[in-house]
Prior knowledge:
Elements: E1 4-11, E2 33-34, E3 37-38, H1 40-45, H2 50-64, E4 72-74, E5 80-82, E6 84-85, E7 90-91, H3 92-96, H4 104-123, E8 126-133, H5 136-139, H6 156-166, E9 172-174, H7 176-181, H8 198-211, H9 214-217, E10 230-235, H10 239-243, E11 252-257, E12 265-270, E13 274-279, E14 292-297, H11 300-311, E15 316-320
Helix pairs in contact: 4-6, 8-11
Amino acid sequence: SLSEILLSFLLNFGISAYLGTGDTVEGYFDGEEHNNIVLTKFADTFYLSSTVRKTITYVDYYLLGIIPTNEVILGDDEFLFPTYDEANKYNYVADYYGELEPETAKLALYYQGIRNITEAYAELGVDCYIAVIPNAQTVYSERMPEFMGEPSEHTRLRSVGDYFAKRGVGNFLDLSSYLINSKVHGELYNNTEDSLNSRGAYYAYRAVIEMLPADVKKVITPVTLKDDDLVQHSGAGKSLARAASLENVIKNKTVSLSTDFVQKYQILFSYDNYDMAFAKMQYRKELPSLPRIEFSFSSDWDRIIMIDYFSNTFGTTIYSFSQSPTKE
């Protein structure tokens, strides 16, 4: 309908790898005597020296092609992949191998959940859509280490999507295939953080636009990027490189919107959990006031990276951020 639409973007904590935590050596640094040798002073002046540890890290990386942490997997072309999501207690490698495929009862629960959400919004006259942004491992599985092999066909995201599709759920969009097919246009993700760059966000945006009802698509003009709208650049490594203590070695190669990209909107209101964007006066005839679009993101970065596209498409947009989905 041309009244209001809710779009929810969920970051899929789906297919990385958790290699486990290795044994620590803290017991050797506490002043205790081991084999009649007190190691405290040696440890303090050598192994616990930040300079020495950083040097060892660099040598491991440059000479052996390894990184000294279980939190990150080193892939091809300096791509780094996370191994474990502590906040969600998510075992990525198990999912990569299909070991976390939900049981039928759990899939039925997910199905009932999306039906309840859809029906609740429908009673308010609001169309609700849910789009899932896949992990970099899903889109760039070919850059995972060769020993990892291909991802299973029974990952959690694929299992949920297949279950929904068989039951005619039309408002759930797994963006995996869209982004995989869009790799021909260039890099879509940051290589040192599991996140989209501006090019990846654009193709996710276009996939969502295609999902919207025909009557909505008739009144909007999707953003079309020109070659000079995107700028490639590099900088210090992001979160995964920092986790590996290699942020000064493995640069983050990314793509951002050019400063020449025209923003046809402005943020007029900001509340605790919401930003409200409206078309600038000179663009109000171009950007439709209806439907009003509300976006709910489980990742604040995805909100930031997509706001230019959606706010250059719709005259009124509302963005809620840091909204993590609950288990219910």
